[in-house]
Amino acid sequence: MIHSTKKRTPSRAARHALGLALAIAGFSAQAQTEAPAPQPMAAASAPAEAAPAAPLQTRLRFNRGTYKPGIEHLRVVRRENTINNVAGQVALNVAFAVLSGGVGAQGFSKDDLGGTTLEELKDDPLGVNPAMSELNDALSKVATDIYRKRAEAALATALTDGSTPEEIEAARQIPKEADTLLLPGPWHLVYENLLGSDELFRLKFGADLGRPGFMRPPIECRYQSEAVAWARWQADNWQLLREERAKAVEACTKFIAAAPEKRW
């Protein structure tokens, strides 16, 4: 007996599932083919070139000169300082008159009195003599420009006059310290009127460029504020003193910087 066999065909659902699987496989292969290849890691960047060295600055050398220790900080000259000095001066004049047959001793100015240090500003930079700080900084920039020009001129000469390598190297050097000294002038609050009971004080500041010499006086700068009541000087944590200090530094910087270059 012969049995006939009937070939089974996949159902519609099976065919649909198979087609979906093939499509997914094709998309996956295409995605892998089109995916960009990983980029090689960038080479480590070369280290940045070292910044050029900051130019050397020529500093002015502060020297107290003939002033007694204490000029480095703000001092206050009050009426009693003059009264005490007058008593001593009268006794000195009498002694000189006796010894010299009537020639009296020389008088004095209240600006020459030492006064007393302000305890409130003893450790505050506001009380430091500007000739040692801000004024010195500002004038050192001027000195640096002047000494740099001198070094450039000296180097140009050394390169053409047969100088040795050592002499050429020495010519290009800019000194760390200027030849000319910066000397202090007054830095104090001075009472305005000896008589009366007002509390008016005037800020006085000064500085000199160079020592006095024969036929060559120093470059002198002197600044003074208006006479102001003591209470105003103290107000708002010495705000007026800060403002007048800045004005004094600006005025003396402008005045001394205008001095002929040969004086530096």
TrEMBL record:
For this UniProt entry, which residues form the secretion signal? 1-31
Query: Where do the record's region annotations for Disordered lie?
Result: 33-55
Specify whether Signal is a keyword of the entry: yes
Keyword vocabulary terms for this entry: Signal
What name does the UniProt record give this protein? Uncharacterized protein
